[in-house]
Specification:
Layout: E1 6-11, H1 16-24, E2 31-35, H2 46-55, E3 60-63, H3 77-97, E4 101-107, H4 130-145, E5 149-154, E6 157-158, H5 165-175, E7 178-182, E8 186-187, E9 190-191, H6 192-205, E10 212-215, E11 222-223, H7 224-235, E12 240-244, H8 264-270, H9 277-285
Helix pairs in contact: 1-6, 2-3, 3-4, 5-7, 7-9
Length: about 290
């Protein structure tokens, strides 16, 4: 058994957001992070969860484990729901039994994307693809099983490392003289470091945080095309970027046209200041090796 220091379990630690928590952890010596990925803790295996929580005194759990391949989910529906729904239910159940506060990361894709003005936490959901449906099912499963649950929906998540839009655009703009990027899907890019820091802020300043659903994304909004143009500008790349309609670039999974998340609840509830997406993008790309 560990001491009564705040032990924070981070599941899915080898993923994009999980790696950011690993990067930030040394800045918070007062917190003891327990980083796990599927080989060390399969959250889809209830017996593994029981054994882990019996062995470790966990105060908080941040669930970064997820099936995030949006297009592949259309043909791998069973796998998507196994990770994003069933496993989340197991985790919420065990966290509830051990009185562990659970932070679960969800997505803007739980909405249908028909509201240009953006979505409050209380807006009706209506996912338009399997990925969004699996994440919504996971939210509902966790809410039914845990009374100390914080769901944080985020959007267009990226980090310095990992498979994300920013790194894909940089690679493509280095490989090609011209690229096309969709300009009729609007959202808010979110720097994973900002999201991770916000969660740590809540843990440090609100030891018994008010449960519920919260939205977190960087402030401001843009199209994927505008996002790509800003990446090009910051990185000093020269490829030509042409705006195209989503209909001209069909994908297996439909995407919401407008997935802006309104973030006033998390800002006011936990006294969090959220940077503009352009500022955070510049922070991410600063000193990046191109």
């Amino acid at each position: 058994m560990e001491t009564d220091q705040k032990n924070i379990l981070v599941t899915g630690a080898s993923g994009q957001l999980g790696k950011v928590f690993q990067y930030l952890a040394p800045d918070y010596p007062q917190l003891n992070f327990l980083f796990t990925d599927k080989p060390s803790l399969d959250i889809g295996n209830e017996q593994s969860l029981i054994a882990f929580f019996t062995q470790h005194q966990v105060k908080y759990c941040i669930n970064c484990a997820a099936y995030t391949a949006v297009d592949r989910a259309e043909r791998e529906q069973e796998q998507a729901f196994a990770i994003n729904d069933n496993a989340v239910g197991f985790l919420a159940k065990i966290c509830h039994q051990h009185e562990v506060s659970l932070f679960h990361i969800s997505t803007d894709y739980v909405f249908d994307g028909t509201k240009p003005g953006g979505y409050l936490e209380t807006e009706p959901t209506g996912p338009v693809n399997v990925y969004g449906a699996s994440k919504l099912a996971g939210e509902n499963a966790a809410l039914a099983l845990h009374d100390k649950l914080i769901i944080i929906r985020t959007s267009w998540l990226y980090a310095k490392e990992g498979h994300n839009f920013v790194n894909s655009m940089i690679r493509l703009m280095k490989e090609k003289q011209a690229i096309n990027v969709v300009n009729d899907q609007i959202g808010s890019p979110t720097y994973a470091n900002d999201l991770a820091a916000a969660i740590i802020h809540i843990i440090l300043n609100y030891p018994d945080p008010t449960p519920g659903i919260y939205h977190y994304s960087n402030s401001g909004s843009c199209s994927w095309y505008e996002f790509a143009v800003e990446i090009k500008s910051i990185c000093g790349l020269t490829a030509t970027i042409a705006p195209i309609a989503a209909a001209s670039y069909p994908t297996p999974a439909k995407r919401p046209a407008f997935s802006i998340l309104k973030t006033e609840k998390i800002q006011h509830g936990f006294h969090i200041s959220i940077p503009h997406w352009k500022e955070s993008l510049a922070n991410c790309l600063d000193n990046r090796e191109l």
